[in-house]
Specification:
CATH class of the largest domain: Alpha Beta
Strand content: 5-15%
Number of domains: 2
Strand order of the largest sheet: 4-3-2-1-8-7-6-5
CATH architecture of the largest domain: Alpha-Beta Barrel
Structural class: alpha/beta
Helix content: 40-55%
Largest sheet: 8 strands, parallel
Distance between the termini: 62 Å
Oligomer: single chain
Number of strands: 8
CATH superfamily of the largest domain: Methylmalonyl-CoA mutase
Order of helices and strands: HHEEEHEHEHHEHEHEHHHHH
């Protein structure tokens, strides 16, 4: 049996016939905030490779609760907990880092960022020194989760993560690259967020080669607050489930679900938030694949676009003196502000739809964009706050 190999032009002619128009790209194209070109269909013309992760299977991280010891292998700690054995422990509190009681059977990772994300624009060298003296597997965190929650684009998040990384290398030397955890918040654009994680793996690996290394970044991914609504907890749960799926499929080494009832949190809501991860992992085993979307023409193309655009922005930041200088001058804050306001305008206009906020039912606007955002400050703002 022989098969006819169809060209891209053959497919275009078929689509034109089906839609009864020659303007198929105008009809099928859709704008996005990242200015990423998304084609209506793809033909593979590039080689692909597996983008590996550090952990064999993605850690499902729970905020510590009594009674979860048997169900969770990994815990996020903000205070000391004794008696934990054979766990992956993620430290989230700078005060805890100094006094934590370590156990040889556990693995320890720091989620503590040593950068001040304000116009002081400095690295806390004393805190960094304390963390580097610890027998953790990864001692320093480069955190860009705040940037996502403040409204930064994916391209900005990737560039900022690299720029923070460069600052740490300049301060502590290239060996710091093997001691880092990168913390990302995962938004609602399912395939773009998969591509975000994949793009950072590629970027960090290329960056490490500048220092004669061939490294894979350790990525901790958590659900975003940006698209969550105060009075819409059930939809928050659905949104965070999709975000967790993006993180696992993209190849994060650890995932964490923030409480979907962020204003009325309880032990039960925290447990439900964690068990989203359990359902995803054990029903679909997506946490064990190394690079599930490798070879997907769409995801590969978007990954490449993110990598190229964020590398370009990273170089622009470096030309201005690096992340800290851009922070000190207000350039970082301004970039995030402009992107965040654009996104908020799309919500206000209905171009971005949030069920239970500006769709089913449509709530009234109660806060202006000017009241929500400040061009001099990086602060988390939920899109739904305009209507609450």
């Amino acid at each position: 049996m022989s098969f006819i190999e169809n060209t891209l032009e053959d497919w275009e002619q078929l689509v034109k016939k089906q839609l009864k128009t020659d303007n198929i790209y105008e009809i099928l194209s859709k704008d996005n905030l990242e200015n990423i070109h998304v084609k209506p269909y793809y033909q593979n013309k590039q080689e692909t490779k597996i983008l590996p992760k550090v952990e064999e299977s993605t850690h499902l991280v729970a905020e510590y609760q009594v009674g979860l010891e048997e169900q969770a292998f990994a815990f996020l700690l903000s205070e000391n907990v004794e008696g934990l054995e054979e766990k992956a422990i993620f430290i989230n509190n700078p005060d805890l880092a100094e006094h934590i009681l370590t156990d040889e059977s556990n693995r320890y990772f720091s989620l503590i960022d040593v950068f001040s994300d304000d116009k002081k624009a400095e690295i806390n060298e004393q805190l960094a020194g304390e963390l580097l003296s610890k027998s953790f597997e990864r001692q320093i965190c480069a955190d860009v989760s705040l940037h996502q929650n403040a409204g930064a684009s994916i391209i900005q998040q990737l560039a900022f993560a690299l720029a923070k990384c460069k600052e740490l290398v300049e301060k502590f030397g290239a060996e710091i690259l093997e001691k880092l955890v990168f913390r990302f918040a995962i938004g609602s654009n399912y395939f773009f967020e998969i591509a975000k994680i994949r793009a950072f793996k590629y970027l960090f690996n290329q960056f490490s080669k500048e220092f004669n290394k061939d490294l894979i970044p350790y990525i901790f991914a958590e659900t975003s607050f940006r698209n969550k609504a105060k009075n819409d907890a059930d939809n928050n749960l659905i949104r965070s489930t999709l975000e967790l799926a993006s993180a696992m499929i993209g190849g994060a080494d650890a995932v964490f679900s923030n409480d979907y009832k962020f204003e009325d949190s309880s032990e039960l809501s925290k447990e439900i938030s964690f068990k989203q991860q359990i359902v995803l992992a054990y029903e679909s085993i997506i946490n064990v694949f190394e690079d599930a979307t490798s070879g997907s023409y769409f995801v590969e193309d978007v990954t490449q676009q993110f990598a190229e655009k964020s590398w370009k922005l990273f170089l622009e930041i470096e030309e201005k003196g690096g992340y800290l200088e851009a922070l000190k001058s207000g350039e970082i804050q301004k970039m995030i502000f402009q992107q965040a306001v654009k996104e908020q305008c799309w919500v206000e206009e209905g171009k971005i739809k949030l069920i239970g906020v500006n769709l089913y039912p449509k709530l009234e606007i109660k806060k202006s964009i000017e009241a929500l955002y400040n061009s001099d400050e990086i602060k988390a703002v939920r899109l739904a706050e305009m209507f609450e």
